[in-house]
Amino acid sequence: MSKRFENLKKIPDEPAVRLLSAANAKLKTKLKSPANASVQTVLEELEAAEAPVDMLRLLSVALPPRECVWWACIAGRDILPEDEKSACLTASEAWVFDPSVENRERLRLVLENESSGDKTAACATAAYYAPGNLGEGDMADIAAPVGVVSACCFGMNLKTLKVGPLPDRCFEVTIDRALDIARGGNGKIQLVEEKKTEGTD
Prior knowledge:
By secondary structure, the protein is an all-alpha fold. The protein has one domain (1-186). It contains nine helices and no strands. The protein has helices at residues 16-22, 39-48, 52-62, 65-79, 87-97, 101-113, 121-129, 148-163, 170-182. The protein is globular, with a radius of gyration of 18 Å.
């Protein structure tokens, strides 16, 4: 197995196809791996097949909800100009650091009153539904929409591909962020731009 996919301790030890099915998600690449293949094995196959979008989709269902929301928040920072504030992103990041009832209530209020036009509204949606239900109290017994967290986080990371750092390596950076989070890191990988050398005649 490629060292790139080693020690992904945050990813459940379940077949990749089971995680995809649970989130009602599909890959475009036709897999050759057996049905019980791990996420790591399928990621390796997708890398060899040069299918980075499918790699992102699989990572969006494989990361635990809280970690997945954080991955989306990093993408959100790419999308926003440095001087632009976002109530959705601020509330999402606060929930990741402290997934309390109070911070979830803040997410609800932000989504209801401040999310219009916010480029990172998907982060707040993912964070709000990450606990797996529709809310607190009577809503706690009602399951969240299937796959909503992974779909929102996948979408956020697709958005950052056009505006994120190192455009020539956008897929690599976005995938490596998720892999770092899966290893227990914070996803803020060191960005090193490859130097281009001019040929000589």
